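Allow me, if you will, to draw on your knowledge of protein folds for a short while. I have a record of one protein: its chain in single-letter code and its fold written as C-alpha cells. The full record is reproduced below for your convenience:
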Amino acid sequence: MSRFNSFVVFAEMRTGSNLLEAALNDLPGVHCHGEAFNPALIGYPNKTELLGISRAARDADPMVLWTRIREAEGLNGCRFFHDHDPRVLEAMLADPHCAKIVLTRNPAESYVSLKIARATNQWKLGDAKHRKDALAQFDAAEFEAHLEGLQGFQVALMHALQTTGQTAFYIDYEDAQDVDVLNGLAQWLGIAGRLSALPSSLVVQNPAALEEKVANFPAMESSLARLDRFNLSRTPNFEPRRGPNVPNLVACDAGLLYMPLRPALDAPIRDWMAKLGKLEDGFSQKTLRQWKRKHPGHRSFTVVRHPLMRAHLAFAALQSWPNFAEARAVLRQSYKLPLPPEGKTLPAADWGEGLLAFLGWLKSNLNAQTSLPVHGLWATQSATVQGFAQFALPDLIAREDRLDQDLAWLAQGVGAEAPAFVPPEGDSAPVKLADIWEPELEQAAADTYSRDYMQFGFGPWKRKGG
C-alpha cells in the first residue's frame, strides 16, 4: 500500500507542468486536477467547479477543495505555483502523506518561454503545425523579479521539508520528458502502473536555442553576466535569532512605545516619555496587544547607535557588571582577553588594546564560534530589530546623534507637544572613546558589525585626523 494518499506538483509557469500532469494522468488510478488553487481559475480555464466544489466555495475556504481532492478515489493531486492560494500551502507541506513533486527549469528558459506564450497567447501545443512564432524581448528588471519569485518559493519549500523531516521527488524540465524518470516517479509514489511512452497530446512548443528565441539576445547575455549567479556578494550570517523581548518595552499614555536596544539610553528617554504620560512596562504579549488596542494611532520606536561606541560601552559593562563574572573568567582563561582583575577596570593606557581584543573575539562570537552565547548587550542591532519585528515593528528607527529631532517628530505623530529633550553625553564609560580612538578600532568595528554598518548606513565614528 502506498504511503501517500495525495500529491502536489510544485512548479511554475512554463516549467513543463502540463506535460508532467498529462503523464501522471496516464498512470492508472492517478488524477492530477490542474491548477486547483489558482486564484484566477479553478483547475483549468473556463471551468466553474472542480470535484463538485464551486470556485466561490473554494475561494471562501480552500481546505474544502483540498479535502475533496484527498478523499477522491485513487491517488489525487494538483499543480501548485508560488502565486496560488497560500492558505492551503501549509496543510500540504505539513502532511507527510501528501507526496511532494518539485518540478524545476532553467529560469532563463522559463522566462523566455513565458514571454513567448504571452506574446502568442499559446500555452499548450498538441501539434507543431499549429505553433505560433514570436520572439521574446528580454527585460533585465522583469527577469530579476521572475528569478527572485522562483528562488524564494524554492527556498521556502526546502525549509518546510527539512523542518518536518520530509523529502520530495525533484524533477527537471528535461527529465519530465524521460519515460524512465517518469516511471521512477510512479515507483516512488507507490503506483503499480508504468508508462510505455510520453503523452501524445502535447509537444514541446519552443525547442530552439535561446539565441534564436530572444530578439535582444546580446542584451540578455550582458544582463545575465552581471547577475550574482553564485551569490558571491552574500555575507554569511550565523548570529542566533533573537526574540521580541516584549517585557523590556516601555510605553506611555500618550501612545508611544519604546523598544530599547542595549546598551540603551533608557533613563533620559524614560524621563522624556514620562513628561508625556504615565509609563508602563513589564508587558507580556497579551498585555501589549491590549495596550495597542487602547491606544489607536500609537507609535513605536527604537534608537540605534554607532557600532564602535556600542562595543566600547559593552566592553565597559563587561568589566564591571557582577552578572558577567563567569563570562570574564572564561574570556581571560580560554580566549586570553586582557581583562582587569575582579573589581578593577582597565586604565586608559590599556583600554584601546583591550577593546581591540574584545572586538576580535566579538566577531567570532557573533558567528557562533565561541563557547559563550551572544549577549543582547553586544548582539547586532540588525538581529535585535528583527527580533522586535516578530511581534511589533518599530515605526521609527531613531539615531542617537539626532535623537532630539526624532523624538519631536514622534510626539507630533501622536498629537502631543514635544517636551524638551537634552541629549545626554553618549559615552558613559570610565575611559572615553574619544581619548583612546585609533583607526584600527574603527576598522575592527566595521569588520565585526558589517551588517549594522550596511543596514543602518553607519560611516566611521571618527575620521582619521578629525
